[in-house]
Amino acid sequence: SSFQINKITPIIGAEIIGDNIFNNLTKVMCNQIYKALIENKVIFFRDQNISNDQHIKFAKSFGNIEPPHPAIACKNHPEIVL
């Protein structure tokens, strides 16, 4: 899968556009996304269908996940905030 990174403003924000990028996410792609996050401070993923398991795997590519308070955690996926 490939994707594009489009700046939203010159100072902050970018959108990441591509067809189902979370289906075949590689370490190289995660590194590109992380670089976009650092450079743009905020990133948006447009029109993506991402499962809870894909979301957790993606988050773990950046480091350990600190579980949220149980009152706001997803019942079957405690790493995800509702």
Describe the structure.
The termini are far apart. The chain is an alpha+beta fold. The relative contact order is 0.18. It is globular, with a radius of gyration of 14 Å. It has helices at residues 27-40, 52-60; strands at residues 4-7, 14-17, 43-45. The mean pLDDT is 91. The protein is 28% helix and 13% strand.
Major β-sheet, in short? 3 strands, mixed
Based on CA inertia axes, which overall geometry fits? globular
How big a fraction of the residues is strand?
5-15%
Rg from Cα: 14 Å
Sequence-ordered SSE layout with sheet pairings:
Layout: E1 4-7, E2 14-17, H1 27-40, E3 43-45, H2 52-60
Parallel strand pairs: 2-3
Antiparallel strand pairs: 1-2
Key words describing this protein structure:
13% strand; 82 residues; 2 helices; single chain; alpha+beta
Give the gist of this structure:
The chain has 2 helices and 3 strands. The chain is an alpha+beta fold. The radius of gyration is 14 Å and the shape is globular.
